[in-house]
Amino acid sequence: MRHVFEAIEQFLAAAREPVLLEPGALPLPLTPDTYLLEVDDRRMLLQAWDSQRNLTRRIAAVGEQQPGRLELKYEGFGKKGGTLVLADLAHRSGDVQRRRSDRHAFREVFRRQMLRQFPGWRVAELSAEADLHHSLSPAYPRAVLRKGSGAWAAIGASPESHSPEAALTFGLIWLDYLRRREPKLHVGGLALFLPDGRTRVTAQRLRWLDEGKAKYLLFSCGEHGEHVVDPRDCGNLETDLAPAASPVAAIEDPLARRIAGLSDVEALGRGDSVSFRVRGLEFARYHLGRISFGVDAKRAARERHFDEIAGLARTVALARHAEAGDRRHPFFRKSPELWLECMVRRDLETVSASLRRDLLYGQVPAFAGGDRDLLDLLGVDTEGRLAVIELKAGSDPHLPLQALDYWMRVAWHAGRGEFRARGYFPAVELRAEPPRLFLVSPALEFHPSTETVVSFLRPEIELERVGLGIEWRRQLRVVFRARGAASPVWQAGQECMHGEECVDGPPVRALHVESLGGEAGGGAAGSHRPGG
């Protein structure tokens, strides 16, 4: 036992912020006044405590040792043993240990929440580990609740969660996976356990999920327990529809006109501002009679700065070009969605021949969308029907539900006749149907879970996925189209990758899974309390 004692002492002496980690419990800080080691030839006891807990374990051996981490095997008192971990949170590996410990601790909180709200059911499966193959994030613990031949999928978000609304995406993926994995089990729906005060976005999304695909239960969880949130009673959408911007041509500022006339420059009106861009990247802005310029940090511009502004525009144009030699240049890599927007504005007919190129608005209506790194465009087709166009340059499992956030706001304003009243789509008689929804992305960047998530949307959301060729910066080329959750129809003879053609389907490639840090049953999308 002496070597075990020495290993622990050496670790604690070297650690700057030592803690004791036990699965399912919060980290227990170790200071000279909060732990005790007792050792003899036959056994060693480790005791640790704080104001709320007192832990005693008989340490049997040292397990795996890594910088900032020491694994300890312990023997149970009349029970099977287990594993403890000593970790130094100040070490660079400490954040990983802290996150893992926090996840395991919340997993047990989540277990108790489910058992309180599903009396008579048992937690048949519970995990807070990553499952990258099925796009399931460790940040949102997931579970299976069972009672006889019936089951519910469940997912939770901790109070510290940065994006609790993301749990719905992973919950739908989990529900679909369970139904495919357990075809004889009736997985009737999805239960979501989210922090108090952070359920509104999810509740609003639930109203637009197909009532024939699954039941949904949304719980708001706080210090005093959980209560059911009714998606039909979650308040109005947070949205703002400003009056349509004046045409860029109406600006009389001489310097602004000179900037707009530069080669490769695009001038876009947004509210009371004009953004001057080169292939989507803003380098100057006109706002309330004043001009500022710069890519990252901007400074005030006067007429004497025109040559400097023109030089900056040329520098951006050389670096931000489909034939650029250095694709690692910051100007090339920055804001790919804005570059994609530039290409779509120039060639909107490629997305859909029915869309009017002369009537296209960006980020209208505006709303606080959290971590949205996709871009919203609003247009109209030749028949007067509104069209929401969502642009995404990279792979993202949340694309369908983030697109839904924007779509439902457009539908809300359209239903009240507010677009015409605020000066949008002049001389167009807008039709009463819900807007069309286009998801536009490089074909190989659509996340593998996209079809799954889209399949849960209500059928009145007319959605089309448009997959672009890999060289979209050079030319927009559609390589597949797909209606709703249908499998893509790849366009024969279209170039997907360098020198490859999509004749019988997409080119085979290794599946890239980003760091996730992610037909049975009927019923309504409202509140469905399980039986006792």
Give the total of beta strands: 25
Would you identify the regions where 5 or more consecutive residues have pLDDT less than 50? 495-501, 507-527
Strand numbers in spatial order across the main sheet = 2-1-7-6-5-4-3
Helix content: 10-25%
Radius of gyration: 28 Å
Multimeric status of the protein: single chain
Report the major sheet.
Answer: 7 strands, antiparallel
* Terminal-residue CA separation: 51 Å
3D shape: globular
Would you kindly provide a written description of the structure presented here, covering whatever features stand out?
The chain is α+β, with helices and mostly antiparallel strands and 532 residues long. It has four domains: 91 residues, no CATH class; 136 residues, Trna Endonuclease, Chain: A, domain 1 (3-Layer(aba) Sandwich), CATH 3.40.1350; 85 residues, no CATH class; 156 residues. 23% of the residues lie in helices and 29% in strands. The strands form four sheets. A seven-stranded antiparallel sheet has the order 2-1-7-6-5-4-3. Strands 19-20-21-22-23-24-25 form a seven-stranded mixed sheet, sandwiched between helices. Strand 15 and strand 16 form a beta hairpin. The longest helix has 24 residues. It is globular, with a radius of gyration of 28 Å.
